[in-house]
Every structure is written in structure tokens, then in C-alpha cells.
Write a sequence for this structure.
């Protein structure tokens, strides 16, 4: 492997006081403006970059000078997004990818080899389980799936060849919260890294490295964009490990983020904190209201005192419950419960019926027949995804309008 020289000519940073706070970094971190002095970040839609002469080109390709060469692995707009997200996640490095799934692919390809082992929560995003089990399994990386909340199960699953623990908190759709600090301790005691998928909280609420995680995974498709426009992803973590182990994979495999999508996410991050705080506040109001409805059997929301990991969530998530609220409508038996859930969904006139989340538009979905529809009934019950379960991802719609929207169906049960 060609190592970077210790003091290459660096791409300059934005001139900001060293002690500025996250809200300022969210709107300003990136790159200094170009020669034209633009105030809003430029979109560099270019596949390659021109060098002043052959010797400079040679120095840049030999990594003796840090510069932009080719957008598969270096682009100014993408770098602005990476620097801004790293600043918010409090990591030294970040590498952007074409999607959240590409971020997980890059992480596993960069850190692991055939014969290595992963321990992963059973409650992570469905495609993450498929990726680890079916795709990486083909290349000799084995995974063991364990309970989201039972630490003894995580400890028991560690093997001498375990190199990575992977978690996502809160989980979808039941919002189960795992203890990041405890998982980091288990990982490090076993000589493994801990990666946390921070999609649901975003760095506005939760910074996993503050609790000992080594890597943070993002689907920029969700709250970082925040308005449901693009597919994007990123891995945040130590700059040295990213440079040595992930950048070579990016160069060879091209899991690269398009500059246009990077620009959308970059601008989305400017309002991330204010959106997450406001959407969480609205989700809390809606969750508390749902808990009081006679047609609702149970509400899953980390911000409610009734949530099993409420205290832990309030510490890890900066006192906020997040934007995802799930609830079970009444109904005797699976068939009636499903019919009731469908009735509530079908009576809505505001909520978007879609399995996506992270939008300013509130979304509503029936997990048992969509995100968890490919599971067998036994697997679905083990995952706790009942037929009466409905998941909301609360956006910026007026809360009173959302209550009225849900009540249209609830009163028919
Ligand atoms: C959506 C999602 C992903 C995958 O991200 P894409 O950008 O769709 O590839 C991964 N993890 C979580 C928690 C998600 O919600």
C-alpha cells in the first residue's frame, strides 16, 4: 500500500474560530469559497480536474499533494458534505457514498476479509441483514444476529475472529434503544470495532462516537437531506482508518456519491438541527395523544415514560425521542388487527402512504406488509411486528392536522 506522505500540501479549511458550535458548523463547515467568492456552496459537476503541468499532475497522483483529480474519489462538493457531516458527528473523518447501503458495503469491504465475523443486531434495517447474510456470506464473512437490547447475547456471540459489531438505534419500527457505551465496551474487549447506523436520530440528537462507537453509518437519504429528494450515504470515523482502509476500496469499487446529491445533502444539513428538534417535539405530542386514544393498544416512542429504555434514550438522544412513532391499533386476532390498521392508513388524507422516512412530509406505513413483508409469520412475530402495527415518521405537518388525519380512521374501529 502506498502510504500518504506525512505532510502533503493540504486542501485548505474554512476560516472559522476554533471553538464554534455545531449549529454554526452545520451552515459553514466545508471548503473556502472559490475565486468568485460565492456565499452559497458551489456545485462542482465535473468528472475530472485539470492540472497546471505534468509535474503537478504527477505529484497529485502520487499523493504528495492533496488535490482533486477525479470525482470517483475526490470532488469539492462531496468534500464539503464530508467535512460538514464529520463536524456534526464529531469524527475526524467522513467518506460519502452513493447510498446508505453503499456506506455499509464500503465499511465491511474496507475493514474485513474472508474468515472475519460480524455480530449485528437482529433489529437493523432489513437490507443490512440481507447484505451481511447473503452477500458478504458469499465472500466468507459470517454474521451472527442478536437481540437489540440483551447485552448477554452480544457478549456470547463474540468469537476470536469477530472484527465488527453493528447496531442501529432506535430500531425500526419498534424504536428499541440499545446501549451504545455497553456495546462499544463489548466490541473493544473483543478486539473489534463498533459501527452504529445513526440514520434515525442523526447527529442533531445522537453522536455515537461520544459513547465509544468507532464508526457511524448514514443514509443521507433520510434526515440529512430531510426533504426526500436524493439517495446518499456516508461512513464517519477516524480519518486515518478511512484513508488507509476505505479510500482504496472507494477508488477501486466506485461506490461514489454524485456531486449533485452531495450538494442537496450539504444544504439539507444546514436545517438538520432545527428540523430534528421540531419534528421530535411534534412526534412527542402525537405519541402522547395516541397513548390516550381508546382504539390504540400500545405506543412505541422513546420519548414516552412508558418506553422500556426511556431513561437510556433520553441520555443518548439529547433528551429527545426522535421523529418515529409506532402504535398498535386494537383488533381481535391478526386478520381484524390488519384490517383495522389498513382502515386507519386508508382514511388519512394528509399523511403520505410510503415506507420512506426522514421527510418534512409525515409518512405512514404498515410494516408487517411492507418493510417486513418478506418475513415469514414466525419471523415477523419474533421481530414483534404485529399486524395491527402502524409506523409514523413525523414531519413538519401541523400536529392538530395530523391528529385529525389519524382520528378519521380511528373512530371507525
Ligand atoms: C434507509 C436506511 C438505510 C439504507 O439507506 P439507503 O440510502 O436507502 O441505501 C440504512 N439504514 C437505515 C436505518 C435506513 O433507514
Amino acid at each position: 500500500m502506498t502510504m500518504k506522505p506525512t505532510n502533503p500540501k493540504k486542501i485548505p479549511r474554512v476560516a472559522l474560530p476554533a471553538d464554534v458550535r455545531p449549529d454554526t458548523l452545520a451552515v459553514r463547515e466545508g471548503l473556502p469559497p472559490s475565486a468568485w467568492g460565492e456565499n452559497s456552496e458551489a456545485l462542482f459537476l465535473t468528472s475530472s480536474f485539470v492540472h497546471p503541468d505534468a509535474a503537478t499532475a504527477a505529484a497529485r497522483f502520487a499523493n504528495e499533494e492533496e488535490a482533486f483529480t477525479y470525482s470517483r474519489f475526490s470532488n469539492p462538493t462531496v468534500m464539503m458534505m464530508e467535512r460538514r457531516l464529520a463536524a456534526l458527528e464529531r469524527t475526524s473523518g467522513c467518506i460519502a457514498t452513493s447510498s446508505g447501503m453503499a456506506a455499509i458495503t464500503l465499511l465491511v469491504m474496507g475493514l474485513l476479509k474472508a474468515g472475519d465475523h460480524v455480530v449485528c443486531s437482529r433489529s437493523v434495517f432489513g437490507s443490512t441483514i440481507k447484505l451481511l447474510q447473503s452477500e458478504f456470506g458469499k465472500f466468507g464473512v459470517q454474521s451472527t444476529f442478536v437481540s437489540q437490547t440483551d447485552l448477554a447475547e452480544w457478549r456470547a456471540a463474540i468469537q476470536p475472529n469477530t472484527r465488527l459489531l453493528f447496531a442501529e438505534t432506535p430500531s425500526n419500527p419498534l424504536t428499541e434503544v440499545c446501549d451504545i457505551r455497553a456495546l462499544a465496551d463489548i466490541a473493544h474487549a473483543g478486539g473489534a470495532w463498533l459501527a452504529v447506523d445513526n440514520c434515525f436520530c442523526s447527529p442533531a440528537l445522537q453522536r455515537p462516537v461520544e459513547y465509544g462507537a468507532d464508526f457511524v453509518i448514514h443514509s443521507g437519504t433520510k434526515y440529512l437531506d430531510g426533504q426526500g429528494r436524493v439517495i446518499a450515504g456516508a461512513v464517519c470515523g477516524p480519518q486515518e482508518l478511512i484513508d488507509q482502509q476505505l479510500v482504496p476500496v472507494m477508488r477501486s469499487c466506485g461506490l461514489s456519491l454524485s456531486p449533485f446529491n452531495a450538494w442537496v445533502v450539504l444544504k439539507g444539513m444546514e436545517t438538520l438541527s432545527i428540523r430534528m428538534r421540531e419534528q421530535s417535539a411534534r412526534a412527542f405530542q402525537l405519541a402522547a395523544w395516541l397513548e390516550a386514544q381508546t382504539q390504540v393498544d400500545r405506543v412505541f416512542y422513546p420519548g414516552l415514560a412508558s418506553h422500556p429504555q426511556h431513561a437510556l434514550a433520553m441520555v443518548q438522544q439529547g433528551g429527545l425521542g426522535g421523529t418515529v412513532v409506532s402504535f398498535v391499533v386494537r383488533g381481535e386476532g391478526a386478520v381484524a388487527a390488519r384490517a383495522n390498521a389498513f382502515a386507519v392508513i386508508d382514511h388519512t388524507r394528509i399523511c403520505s402512504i410510503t415506507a420512506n422516512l426522514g421527510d418534512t412530509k409525515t409518512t405512514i406505513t404498515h410494516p408487517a406488509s411492507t418493510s417486513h413483508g418478506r418475513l415469514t409469520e414466525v419471523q415477523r412475530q419474533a421481530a414483534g411486528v404485529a399486524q395491527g402495527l402502524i409506523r409514523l415518521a413525523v414531519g413538519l405537518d401541523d400536529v392538530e392536522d395530523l391528529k385529525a388525519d389519524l382520528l378519521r380512521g380511528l373512530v371507525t374501529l
Residues 47 and 71 are 5 Å apart (CA to CA). The first helix runs from residue 22 to 28.
